[in-house]
Amino acid sequence: MLQVIFPFLTAIALSGVAAYYSVIGLAQIFPGSFWPIVIMGSTLELAKLVTVSWLYNNWNETIRLMRYYFFVAVLLLMLITSMGIFGYLSKAHLETNVVLGANTVQLKTLQQQENIVKERLDYLLKRAGDPATASRKIDKQIQEAQQELKEINEKKLPLLSEENKLAAEIGPIKYIAEALYTKDDPNFIDKAVRAVIMIIIVVFDPLAILLLVASNQTYRKLKENKETPTESKKAIKKKKIDNSTAPSVELFTKDDNEVIPKSKIVNIGEMP
């Protein structure tokens, strides 16, 4: 019985997780109708499981048109679930890219400001080193440029720390991307993410459906095995009855299968 329960529970768990990702993903694809999409997606996921189980157990008894429609409907529902999962996982990756991209833009802006201030500071230092152009005004401008560089560095520190954290988060997928694609491609990380998501989709909802079919198949086999011994016992019992030594009509027949004439049968009462 465990061979039925474990695949069934695993199928339900996989289907539940897939349904959650799918429903949230579909709701993000259609953000204008969040709750209607959630209700629709949840109902479709439940209908898919019921349809698969019913169709497997009633395949031979179902008319051909109904059978094919159910089969196509299950395939389309699996496709919808996969689309929802793809949308959910893609959004998670895009959110990380948005934060990383905004952080990178701020760092680039501060780096450009820093370069401008450094060039101005170098120019002022050259003028301050020339006795012909040195003045108190130049010294004051040098101090202001140095203070500005200090403020820029203070702004860069938290951004650099955040960028290191984000780089650590995308580190695993970056290693996968480097193994699959070259760094010359600017979108090599995005391509690797899509490849991983597609692999997850292939083994997510289809595996749940097949596990549900497998649990139904195992249950049917166990049920048939339980019924077979009962029929054997009935056959054995019938055979014993047939082999009984109780008197029968055959005792009144000769070896040549001819019936003993009635005149030769002696009445028990007339026996001496």
Key phrases:
single chain; 272 residues; mainly alpha; 0% strand; rod-shaped
What topology emerges from the helices and strands here?
Elements: H1 2-29, H2 34-57, H3 64-129, H4 136-169, H5 171-180, H6 188-202, H7 205-242
Helix content: over 70%
Mean pLDDT: 83
**Number of helical elements:** 7
Oligomer: single chain
Residue runs with pLDDT of under 50 for 5 or more positions: 248-255
Q: Roughly how many Å is the radius of gyration? A: 42 Å
Strand content: under 5%
Query: Globular, elongated, flat, extended or rod-shaped: what is the shape?
Result: rod-shaped
Order of helices and strands: HHHHHHH
Please explain how this structure is put together.
- This protein is mainly α and 272 residues long.
- The chain has one domain (2-222).
- The protein contains 7 helices and no strands.
- It has helices spanning 2-29, 34-57, 64-129, 136-169, 171-180, 188-202, 205-242.
- Helix 1 packs antiparallel against helix 2, helix 2 (34-57) crosses helix 3 (64-129) and helix 5 (171-180) crosses helix 6 (188-202).
